[in-house]
């Protein structure tokens, strides 16, 4: 299961993983999403080895490294 959010006309942000990871999706198709808005919750229903999420940015139909984009938006990328 995946959730794609169009950031600009040529940039799409994709959050994806299998159905058992998404606990609750809090937005619907066509909703306007604001920066820092909670779009869903993830967890472990027992069918996975741990909670995690795959995140992609697609620009002009090509996957790009999301790290520079996240840093430019002020996101902290501390290693755990």
Please explain how this structure is put together:
With about 80 residues, this protein is mainly beta. It has one domain. The protein is about 10% helix and about 35% strand. The chain has one helix at about 65-70, and strands spanning about 1-10, 10-15, 20-25, 40, 55-60, 60-65.
Portion in strands: 35-45%
Strand segment count: 6
Taking all Cα atoms into account, the compactness measure Rg is 13 Å
Lateral strand order in the biggest sheet: 1-2-5-6
- The total domain count is 1
Structural class: mainly beta
User: What is the number of helical segments per DSSP (H or I, 4+ residues)?
Assistant: 1
Distance between the termini: 26 Å
Average of per-residue pLDDT values: 76
Which word captures the global form?
Answer: globular
The largest pleated sheet is described as: 4 strands, antiparallel
Helix-strand pattern, N to C? Answer: EEEEEEH
Helix content: under 10%
The unreliable regions are none
